[in-house]
Design brief:
The chain is of the alpha/beta class and 366 residues long. Helix content is 45%, strand content 16%. Strands 1, 2, 3, 4, 5, 6, 7, 8, 9, 10 and 11 form an 11-stranded mixed beta sheet that branches. Helix 1 runs parallel beside helix 4, helix 1 packs antiparallel against helix 13 (349-362) and helix 3 runs antiparallel to helix 12. It is globular and about 65 Å long.
Length: 366
């Protein structure tokens, strides 16, 4: 246990700069605003693929800044190029905290490298406010739930849905004579002290708690988790890898889509519990302002949001699609069984900053 505490302390020290980085990003977005970078509010008209394809082939490629997992990006590109072999996709995979600042910094320097971006809803909204994106409505877009419909017109292309769950190691839990955790509150109990992890950058998870139980109760719950000596991890991937290894035994806010995939491969070392309400967040795909390859950008966006593209999102990544025809993993997504508690798609930089600080402070991450 002493070794675990030492590791925890080390990760706490490494987390502090991330909080500062998030504050810097919020400051950049607030400072630049739409007037600093510019950008048009005119919605770009949709065109048929046969109209876009010749110009897209002439442009030669599309540049995609994305938070899709490294292991999924190449397969998504291959699926697109099966349909449009004449258009190359150059992908830059960035973490959710790096992508927005990268785009803002580039455009403030009058460098327009990105064509399409896909990332979590909250930072995408900040990028919309900063004027770094252009509104575009593909001809086919999955319908948004009511809770996400307050995004500005011309945006709101939900490329997939993320849900969070409690992941745990069944063999390890059994060996320690513990009951599998089924609620977040379970991990505030004394028997779980120091035996679970949490991602202190998962602001969308915290926002979902606020949505489902109100701000004060959500903060109180996170404080109880923080008081129970969680291991602080640097990514969702890290949290699941550690749970598979048995140290710690559980993660309170793992991504369900990834936990489900790992549970199928290693059922003795990975299982997960969905909570009701179920923390949920949208990832959006949007066109960057002054995209250097505009026809290819539209073609790629149209494909991503089409039934074909959404089917590939589901089959390749196990992410959830809002497309009514999508064959989603029902162990991850079943709104009739687990009511979604959506994170806040429209949030000011100041509110985001405040929530991030209080969330990380409650976890003793800063």
């Amino acid at each position: 246990m002493h070794e675990v505490r030492q590791r925890r302390a080390g990760r706490m020290r490494r987390r502090a700069p991330l909080a500062a980085g998030a504050l810097l990003l919020a400051g950049m977005l607030t400072a630049c605003g739409s007037s600093a970078i510019g950008g048009s509010n005119d919605i770009q008209p949709a065109q048929q693929p046969e109209q876009l394809l010749p110009q897209a082939k002439q442009e030669g490629k599309v540049v995609w800044y994305t938070t899709f997992a490294d292991s999924d990006v190449d397969d998504m590109i291959s699926a697109f190029q099966k349909s449009y072999p004449g258009v190359k996709v150059d992908a830059l995979r960035l973490s959710a905290d790096k992508l927005p600042s990268r785009l803002v910094t580039e455009q403030r320097g009058r460098k327009y490298n990105a064509d399409v971006i896909s990332a979590d809803c909250e930072p995408v909204y900040q990028l919309i406010q900063a004027g770094t994106l252009s509104p575009y409505e593909p001809p086919q877009v999955p319908p948004l739930p009511a809770q996400l419909q307050n995004l500005p017109k011309g945006y709101g292309n939900a490329v997939y849905i993320l849900t969070s769950a409690i992941a745990y190691n069944p063999s390890g839990v059994k060996a320690q004579h513990l009951q599998p955790p089924t609620t977040i509150e379970d991990l505030t109990e004394p028997q779980w002290k120091g035996r679970f992890s949490i991602d202190p950058s998962a602001i969308n998870w915290y926002e979902s708690l606020i949505t489902s139980m109100g701000h004060d109760k959500a903060l109180q719950l996170v404080r109880k988790l923080g008081a129970n000596s969680p291991l602080l991890v640097e990514s969702h991937t890290q949290s699941l890898t550690q749970v598979q290894s048995g140290e710690p035994l559980a993660s309170v806010n793992a991504y369900a889509y990834k936990a489900a995939s790992l549970a199928k491969k290693t059922p003795t070392r990975m299982a997960f519990s969905n909570t009701d309400p179920q923390p949920a967040a949208a990832a959006l795909a949007e066109v960057a302002r002054d995209a250097p390859h505009p026809a290819a950008a539209k073609l790629f966006m149209d494909w991503l949001m089409s039934p074909e593209g959404q089917a590939n999102v589901v089959s390749i990544t196990n992410h959830t699609s809002l497309d009514t025809a999508a064959k989603n993993d029902t162990s991850v997504w079943n709104p009739a069984k687990w009511k979604p508690a959506w994170s806040l798609p429209v949030i000011t930089a100041d509110t985001y900053d405040r929530y991030l600080q209080e969330y990380q402070k409650a976890l003793h991450a800063i």
